[in-house]
Structures are given as C-alpha cells and as structure tokens.
Amino acid sequence: MTCRLDALCFDAHDPLGLARFWAGVLGWETSGDPLDGIALLPSDDTGFRIRFLPSQERKVGQNQMHFDLTSSSLADQRRTVARALEFGARHIDVGQRPDEDHVVLADPEGNEFCVIGPDNAFLADCGFVGALACDGSQEVGYFWSAALGWPLVWDQDQETAIRSPHGGPKITWGGPPLDPRFGKNRLHFDLAAPDGGDQQAEADRLVSLGAKHIEGEEGRVVLADPDGNEFCVLPPRSG
C-alpha cells in the first residue's frame, strides 16, 4: 500500500478567516476532529482535507499550486465568481489573455485560483474542484504518480497529470519553464502513512523515489519532492 493524500495545507495569517472563505466558496464543512486543527472536510469526491496553519510569512510571488474550479455553464461560472467575490476574493492579473475563458481570482490572503469556463474538455468529467494545478516538471509528475499510486492521465510535451483511481480532482504539472521560487511554499501536501504501516518506512520509500529529507517537525517527517516542494509524512491514520 502507498501513502494517502491526507490534506492540502495553506499557511495563513488568519487561519479561521481563510477557512471560512474556502468553506463558503466550496460548500465544505469545518472538521469536528481536534487533530485536524482548522480544517475543511470535502462534501464531494475530492478525497482530501484542506487545513489552515498559522504563519506570519509574507506571500511573495505566485503560489506553486492553485485550484481550478469547474463550471457547468457560463451562468454557473458567473455565479461562482460572484460568490467568491462576496466572500472576499478579488480579480487579479497573472498575465492571462482577454480571450481566455477562465477567471483568475485571489482569496483574501492573495492565494490564486481559477474559475474555469464550461467548455474545458480536460476537466469535463471532474467535480467542482476540477484540478489542483501546479508549476512543476515532468519528473515531479512521475514522482507523485509513484508516491500516491495514482495513474498518469496526461503525459504530453512535458506536461503531466495524475488522478486518484477513486475520482476527484486531477493534479497537474505544467512543465518548463518553471516559475522562480521564493522560499517556502504557502501550500503543501500532508501525506498519511498507510494504515498499519510505518511512518519512517514510508518516508524511506519516498526518498527512494526521489524525495529528499529537510528539517523535520515533531510527529511528522518533512521531505521535498524532486522540484524542491516541501511535504510532510504523518503517522498512519484511519478515515
């Protein structure tokens, strides 16, 4: 068995406020599990939590990953954008062309996300959270496919994407050229070791696939993927 993607973690100046924003946009419920801290539980097939961790680090540059939210129609896209703006989002310019059919927004702490138009064939069979779009190399797409045991659903022109066999959002990597990095990522993955497995053994497996050890934290092993993106390996946990 492989590790499980337990959570996508956001560093936040105001974890509770950011959790309320994303709960409103996604329609997810706050976790009642004190082990989660401030977290949201998916109400669909997304398959992982969103956790919000306190941080005073200033956001510099674009994030290495962002959500792509889907739309069933132009009216549905407009409703999603209006709802996000009502909860505190704002329009931003990241170099998108005027003729592109997606709307680029930022949450109240500046984390980018997109509301995709209804004609996007790549996300046509996905739910509302269509993709977690990442800046990254082909190598890192291969790494995460092996790490999570998720098959590649796209591998062309150095762009890759994986998806859980159980459905949910795709995780995509756009290939070169890669964006410049500005210190620690504001978003990172928390992985849970397999139920009945061993945290250190799972960390060793990930290192054998190309991860590297970096400074650890109590109760978790901190690694970096082949592109240098930090992630954590947690002890086994059911659910």
TrEMBL record:
Give a Pfam family name. Answer: Glyoxalase_6
Q: Which CDD domains match?
A: VOC
The Glyoxalase-like domain covers 8-116, 132-234
Q: Which InterPro entries does this UniProt record tie to the protein?
A: Glyas_Bleomycin-R_OHBP_Dase (IPR029068), Glyoxalase_6 (IPR041581)
Q: Which SUPFAM superfamilies match?
A: Glyoxalase/Bleomycin resistance protein/Dihydroxybiphenyl dioxygenase
Read off the Gene3D superfamilies from this record: 2,3-Dihydroxybiphenyl 1,2-Dioxygenase, domain 1
Record-linked PANTHER family: CONSERVED PROTEIN (PTHR35908:SF1), HYPOTHETICAL FUSION PROTEIN (PTHR35908)
Under which name does UniProt file this protein? Glyoxalase-like domain-containing protein
Q: What is the species of this protein? A: Sphaerisporangium melleum
